[in-house]
């Protein structure tokens, strides 16, 4: 089986979560999970009723918490692994497409590229959902994760030469994108979350894999310490100069673009293939669904493509909200050398 091809099986973790694979290791993590869960602080959920705080991070109590414990307890990283790491709604879908297309550019032609018929999420297995299903994948593995850098096991960060491509985005756009997306997925029996509520929760750090600023700072600091291992990107820069960023991505992935490829316009082809305008208009991304077996949730692919703009927060946030979130951002990032646009 060619595992690097898009595979609908990349979410097969449900087998694991549902306990159908019966091993001592799984039992141990499940026990740890069952013992830990009742003692964790709870906050209001955006998509689920609650989020729980584990090791300082807010997670959905079922899939995300179990996924994290799984990775911490059992994932066997390889030195050649490449992870696409993101906080949700910062550009995951886009970077997945770009990474997949860049990494596999000699394997697929642009006219019949897998991304024309597969949602980007179907192209890169989600580590947090299937850590033990990945053992059979040939190296080098391209995987994705939402786990904050500081919560990853040492086996992935300190002890291995695994690489991470990380993308962040202006928190105001992340908040708005997340609020609109989560309300679409929120079960009908739960009342929708108002923007005011979402704003408050986000500012307090209570959102999936939040606090947002801590997530960003974890990868930012790691990128300063080990730039060869952590590539730190910004959604806004990718929008501004996609070709420049794709070339950096190529180098980071260990596949720099040759002069010939550049003169043949390969970089631009990748940028075009993965552009919002192209991906959001494909049949697969307009009408198909992504089944997240681990959470039993089905997501319409079109929800991953809303506007794809920088600064759409201006249509939603009040001046007061902007002032508060900007203040939090300045405070949190103070002295880090990292800034977001105003
Ligand atoms: N190709 C491309 N180019 C530019 N922007 C894109 C692209 N694909 C998705 N998007 C926009 O990214 C936002 C979704 O973020 P994520 O992909 O991180 O979401 S998720 O975590 O995977 O659910 C969401 O942003 P908003 O439009 O602001 O809501 C998407 O529209």
UniProtKB/TrEMBL annotation:
Top-level class of the enzyme under EC nomenclature: transferase
Enzyme Commission designation: 2.8.2.-
Entry keyword set: Transferase
InterPro entries: P-loop_NTPase, Sulfotransferase_dom
Gene3D superfamilies xrefs: P-loop containing nucleotide triphosphate hydrolases
GO MF annotation: an example: sulfotransferase activity
Domain named Sulfotransferase: residues: 80-336
Entries under SUPFAM superfamilies matching the protein: P-loop containing nucleoside triphosphate hydrolases (SSF52540)
Family affiliation: Belongs to the sulfotransferase 1 family.
Protein's recorded name: Sulfotransferase
Organism of derivation: Gossypium aridum (American cotton)
